[in-house]
Write a structure and sequence with these properties.
Elements lengths: L25 H11 L7 E5 L5 H8 L4 E6 L2 H14 L4 E4 L2 H4 L8 E6 L7 H11 L3 E12 L11 E9 L2 E8 L4
Parallel strand pairs: 1-2, 1-4, 2-3, 4-5
Antiparallel strand pairs: 5-7, 6-7
Length: 182
């Protein structure tokens, strides 16, 4: 796996062996970071379902100020830590179930939240509902969720709203912001 942009562009990171990790494709990563643009520079970035850690490394390479990664697998968290050290980056790595971790994070603390839940799980909706109920997204921040194309998100969200969806083959990327950001 290769970082596609920023100061670490072209650097290879190790992919954990034998674990079911589905890294975001380079095409989608490049599109996502092009859409986010200058928002990434100086951002507090949260990566939920961090997997290989590639998305967080990409954010740091492109100028994010800080990275917090949440991953349930201890082996994957160890692999992320190894990749961080090999490039010279630091991050807050949290091991555990996102449903327990997110409600403990401080309100209004992240500029960009990225979530890439397992495709055949209900977790994209769980993430939106959890953040809607405990808004860790800053007022002008973005929540970005990678999902299977045509995924149906909850319609009864109170604090956040979907503002855009882009499709790339069978993959969709949806962008949310706080309702009070207008």
């Amino acid at each position: 796996m290769i970082i596609t942009g920023g100061e670490a562009r072209g650097r290879r990171i190790a992919s954990p062996e034998g674990l079911s990790v589905r890294p975001t494709s380079s095409k989608i990563r490049q599109a996502l970071f092009n859409i986010l643009g200058a928002r990434v520079v100086g951002a507090n970035f949260l990566d939920i379902f961090a997997g290989s850690g590639l998305m967080g490394l990409e954010a740091l390479s492109r100028g994010a100020e800080s990275l917090t990664s949440i991953e349930e697998s201890r082996k994957l968290v160890d692999a992320i830590a190894t990749n961080m050290r090999s490039i010279g980056y630091q991050a807050s790595l949290m091991t555990g179930d996102f449903r327990r971790i997110l409600p403990r994070l401080p309100l209004d603390s992240f500029d960009i939240i990225f979530a890439d839940p397992p495709y055949k799980s209900p977790f994209a909706s769980t993430v939106t509902r959890t953040i809607d109920g405990h808004c860790i997204l800053k007022p002008d921040g973005r929540l970005v969720i990678e999902h299977v194309r045509d995924y149906v998100f909850p319609k009864d969200l109170q604090l956040i709203e979907r503002i855009d969806t882009r499709d790339y083959g069978q993959t969709g990327i949806s962008f949310f912001q706080r309702r009070d950001a207008h």
